[in-house]
Amino acid sequence: MILFTHYWVLLLLPVALLPLLLERTHSRRYAWLALLPKDPLSDLIGLLLKILAVLALLFILLGMAGPHTAAQQVERIGQGAQIILTIDRSASMDEPFSGAMTGRGHAGESKSAAARRIITEFVRQRKNDMFGVVTFSNSAMYVMPLTQSHEAILAAIDAAGGPGLFQTNIGSGLTTALGMFAKTPDSGSRVIVLLSDGAGNLSALTQQKVRDWAERMRVTLYWIVLRQPGGISIFDEHLKLADDQPTPPEIKLHEYFKTFRTEYHAYEADDPQSLAMAIEDINRKEKKPIRYYEQIPGHDYAPHCFAIAAGMIGVLMGIRLLEVRTWH
C-alpha cells in the first residue's frame, strides 16, 4: 500500500493538465498556417509532446507528495538476549585498576576507559541482542532504552565517559535498569550487566523492590567488580574484621544478590585483561534462543518519481533542440 508524506500536494494534480490546454506560441503567430493542408503526423507528435509534459508535471507532483510504503516488523529467531549495561560513573572509575596494568598498549588505562573499550567490542560481537544503557553515580541516568540499533548503543557507551561524582548509588542504577524491561516485551532472555568499582548501602525498601522486580521479570544479574587499589575481595572467605568494623558494602551487596531466586554471577577484575575475561564469560553464557522483531523501513518512491520526471523533461528539451526554428 502506497502512503504519502504530504497528502495536500495531491490536490495540485489537476495542474498537470495545463499542457493540454495551452497552445504552442508559433501556432498563433502566423495565421496563414491554418491554410496549409492537415498534417496528421505533426498533430500526433504535438499531442504526444503535450502528454509527455503532463506526465512530467504529474511525476514531479507525486514526488513532492512523498510516496512510500509503510514500515514493517518481521519476527526473527536468533541467539542472544535483552541486555542492559548498568555502568558506574562515580569519580573513582577514572582511577586505574588495583592490579598492575601491563596490557598491550593499555598501561595505566583507567577503569572507565577500559570498560568502554571492552563493552564496545562486546556489543559489536552480539548481532542479535537488544541493548540498553544506564549509568549511575549519585543517581541513575537513563541513557538509552532497549534497542536493536547497535550504532545508537555504541554512541551511548561512548557518551557515557564524562566526569562522575563522588557517590555510588547502585540501587538507583538497578531500579532504572529493571524499569526498562517493563516497557519491552520479553524475548526469552533478560540480562543486567552491572559494572562497578564499589557498592553502596541499599535501603530495605530498595532491596525488596530490586529483588521482586528481578524475580518477576526473570532477569539474570552479572556483577563485575572493578577492584579499587587495596580493596577487599568479595570472594575472600577468610576475611576477618574487627568487632567494631562494619561489613564492607561490597560484601553486603554480594550476599544480598545471592538471595535472588534468579541467576546471579559475580566477577572481579583487577586489570583490563581480567575485565575482558569476565565479559567473554558472559558472552559465552548468554547464547539462548530469543524471538525479536526487526524493523524494516518502508521504501521511498520519491526519488524514482523525480528521476522519471527528469527523464521526460530531458526528452522534451532534446526534441526542442531538433525543432525547426521560425524566421522573421
As residue ranges, the low-confidence spans are none
Main beta sheet: 6 strands, mixed
Chain-averaged pLDDT: 81
State the secondary-structure class. Answer: alpha/beta
CATH superfamily of the largest domain, please?
von Willebrand factor, type A domain
Lateral arrangement of strands in the main beta sheet: 6-5-4-7-8-9
C-alpha termini separation:
55 Å
Number of helices: 10
Explain what this protein looks like in three dimensions.
It is a single chain. With 328 residues, the protein is α/β, with parallel strands linked by helices. It has two domains: 2-70 and 298-322, no CATH class; 76-294, Rossmann fold, CATH 3.40.50. It is built from ten helices and ten strands. The protein has helices at 18-21, 26-29, 40-65, 111-125, 150-159, 170-181, 204-216, 249-257, 272-285, 302-322, and strands spanning 2-4, 67-69, 72-79, 82-88, 130-136, 140-147, 190-196, 219-226, 264-269, 289-296. Strand 8 (219-226), helix 8 (249-257) and strand 9 (264-269) form a beta-alpha-beta unit. The radius of gyration is 34 Å and the shape is rod-shaped.
Summary, kept brief:
The chain is α/β, with parallel strands linked by helices. It has helices at residues 18-21, 26-29, 40-65, 111-125, 150-159, 170-181, 204-216, 249-257, 272-285, 302-322; strands at residues 2-4, 67-69, 72-79, 82-88, 130-136, 140-147, 190-196, 219-226, 264-269, 289-296.
